[in-house]
Amino acid sequence: MKAQRVCLCLLGAVLLLCSVGGRSLRGCVVLVDIRRMEQSFQDIKTAIQARDTLQNVTILAVSEALHSVKPFDVCCMTKNLLAFYVDRVFKDHRELNPKILRKISSIANSFLYMQKSLQQCEQTLCHCRPEAANATRTIHDNYDQLEVQTAAIKSLGELDVFLAWINKNHQETSTA
Amino acid sequence: MFAAITIIIFISGRWDLLALLLTLFSPGTELPSPASVWFEAEFFHHVLHWTPIPNSSESTHYEVELLKYGTNLWESMRNCSQPRMLSCDLTMATLDLYHRCYYIAKVRAVDGGQRSNWTVNSTHFSINEVTLTVGGVKLEVYNGSIFGTIHPLRPKMAPAADTYESIFTNFREYEIEVRKVPGQHKFPNKKVKQENFSIPIAEEMGEFCVKVKPSLSNRINKGLWSTEECIILVATQQYFTATNLTIFFTFALLLGAALSYCLALQLYVRRRRRGKLPTVLVFNKPTPFILISQISWPETHVTIHPLDEEAFPKVSPELRNSELHGSTDSGFDSAKPSLQTEEPQFLLPASDPQAKETMGKGAPLELENNCSSGCSTSTDSGICLQEHSLCPSVEPHWESQPGSNSQGEDDSGIGLIQKSEGQPGDIQGGSALAYTRSLRPEVPSEDDSTTVAFQGYLKQSRCTEEKEAKAECLEEESPSTDSLDPTCQTCLDAEAGWPPPALAKGYLKQGAPGMTLTPSGTSVEQWKHPTEEWPLLGLTSCGDLGTSDWSFGHVLAPLDRVVAPGGLLGSFDSDLFNQQLMSSLH
């Protein structure tokens, strides 16, 4: 009787640790208001996307690259895309309209906050596998094939895609 | 001509003019393009809209093409190229919208051989463009609250696996608005995170309308208010529940049973009472509306028997003035003077017919003349007492009819009329009636014909053998307690010095215990003295009573109280006396 009780207690402890660790193994917890960013982009979406004349070309909306990412690569992929937008897109875009510039700056600041939050995660918790590295390389290659201004405007126009992807992957993971 | 002009512009190097010329005269570019193209989408209902071109004709139609964002293949929507169509349902072509796909659509006008340029929708058509709606709201009222159920939209074009709940798994919200009708009073909006909600409406009645707007907390999708669903809240709805109705009917049954039991009990009691009720007490139920003249008193049969005057013996004048007249049995004061000259109510039958005539005529007149003035008008008992001094001539004496045994019927309260004749008739002839004789030892007056009316009841004890004893009593002035009849002894003892009892007219008063009678047979002289001393007392001598059977006794007073001086009365045979009384009464 006592041995059985001990075994049951150990099993319960292991299961508890696994449930807690599973969340941490999948990725870091990012606490950000995605809906506010989406609302900010919604306000400038028409103006930004209207400037995109190349409808048959996409940088992010590639099913193989973004939507084929596995749950374990979500953390790495999120970190790489945040770096892409902060280091290349926001810097290459020249916005003359102050209203649009304000909205873009708000989104950029939110991306910086998210990037710092992910950098605090342990490397083991946000490890990049080759699949995630390949997907990130594809996106950069697509960005490089276009003119800088066109690529930048197109990347800004695809922010709704990136935000929807973040909303889906990270919130579904936390509620699971 | 057109070619020559083109060559000239080309040689001159004016390329802008050349482009303008080619644009104006190029085929299919004359039509303007639609000004704007946009999507209006609800859940699984995606419609592309465009503005018409100016100066369009009836043959003008539009071509629509759709591109999935990130691909190079534009798909032409041929069902949208109908003439005069300004919108097109592209739901079936955009089912992947809810699976992270974006669409771009473009439209151009076509009229005959002319086509316009393409107009591309300005924004990418994505899931964020879908306006959220609900299928319907169902309301119920329970326990003073409104319970609602929200039914999500179920579009026919949506695949079976693509439901609202499956696509928007989390963060679904609904805003609820309640409005009371009539009026525009709105309750504060309530937000719920599930499809079931309740709104407490405490103690309010009326019609309430509810509408719902869906939303997603993690998305920026817009929501549309549903159509209002109204429900009427009535007070009876709260009360007419199964439980309340059951309790009500239970109490009604119990009350009916109690009432029926009470009615049955009352009927049973009434029947028993009617069985025991004497018939003489059963009265007819009076009718409520009866005139006064018609009121009939309960009939009580009263039979009045005329008094047979002949049945009553004459009363000697001596008896009228006997001491018993002052008896308190009837409530009269024994010290009162004896009554005399009272109004005669009844005339005793006289043995002498002449006396009868005299009685019938003179007596009342004399009585009225002589005695009416001194008559105390106490008529409660029908007895009128009078002073002897006022009517000295009236000396009633008892007189009985020979063989009359009905003297005892004085018990019926019939007053006897004294006969004033000097001959005292036989009061009784062996009658059982007992008469008290409080007589004055007076000689009957000269007016023997005067009759004195006895008003009231006179009851005296009688002796069965009075005649002989009385004779001896009268003749022998020395009483012998042993041999004499107790009545005579009493008479003699009374003669010894007892105050003569007042004359009883009609009703002889019973005096105090110890009262005795005086014999009427004594000499007048002996009795005169008492009369002088007690002028108010009318006593008849024993001699007056000699010829009449008289016996005395206290009829009303119990025999125990009658203690004769010297114990004469005490030596009465009480049993005999009682027997005589009883027989007289019967």
From TrEMBL, chain A:
Which InterPro entries does the entry link to? Answer: 4_helix_cytokine-like_core (IPR009079), IL-10/19/20/24/26 (IPR020443), IL-10_CS (IPR020423), IL-19 (IPR020421)
Predominant place of localization: secreted
SUPFAM superfamilies reported for this sequence: 4-helical cytokines
Q: Which Pfam families match?
A: IL10
Cellular component (GO) terms are: extracellular space
Q: Which GO terms describe its molecular function?
A: cytokine activity
- Looking at the record's lineage, which domain of life comes first? Eukaryota
Cysteine disulfide links: C28-C121, C75-C126, C76-C128
Question: Signal peptide position in this chain?
Answer: 1-24
Keywords on this record?
Answer: Cytokine, Disulfide bond, Secreted, Signal
The compartments listed are: Secreted
The UniProt entry's sequence similarity note says: Belongs to the IL-10 family.
Q: What does this protein do?
A: Immune regulatory cytokine.
Q: What is this protein called?
A: Interleukin family protein
Q: Which species expresses this protein natively?
A: Galemys pyrenaicus
From TrEMBL, chain B:
* Record's keyword terms, sorted: Cell membrane, Cytoplasm, Disulfide bond, Glycoprotein, Membrane, Phosphoprotein, Receptor, Signal, Transmembrane, Transmembrane helix, Ubl conjugation
UniProt main location, coarse? membrane
Span-the-membrane segments of this chain are: 247-269
The ranges of region (Disordered) come to: 394-430
Q: Name one GO cellular component term.
A: cytoplasm
Q: Where is the signal peptide?
A: 1-19
Cite the Fibronectin type-III domain residue spans from the record.
18-118
Can you name one GO molecular function term for this protein? Answer: interleukin-10 receptor activity
The record ties this protein, via Pfam families, to: Tissue_fac
Q: Where can this protein be found?
A: Cell membrane; Cytoplasm
Q: How does this protein sit in the membrane?
A: Single-pass type I membrane protein
**PANTHER family per the record?**
INTERFERON/INTERLEUKIN RECEPTOR, INTERLEUKIN-10 RECEPTOR SUBUNIT ALPHA
Query: What family does this belong to?
Result: Belongs to the type II cytokine receptor family.
The annotated subunit structure for this chain is:
Interacts with IL10. Interacts with IL10RB. Interacts (via its cytoplasmic domain) with JAK1 (via N-terminus). Interacts with BTRC; this interaction leads to IL10RA ubiquitination and subsequent degradation. Interacts with STAT3.
- Known role: Cell surface receptor for the cytokine IL10 that participates in IL10-mediated anti-inflammatory functions, limiting excessive tissue disruption caused by inflammation. Upon binding to IL10, induces a conformational change in IL10RB, allowing IL10RB to bind IL10 as well. In turn, the heterotetrameric assembly complex, composed of two subunits of IL10RA and IL10RB, activates the kinases JAK1 and TYK2 that are constitutively associated with IL10RA and IL10RB respectively.
User: What is the protein's given name?
Assistant: Interleukin-10 receptor subunit alpha
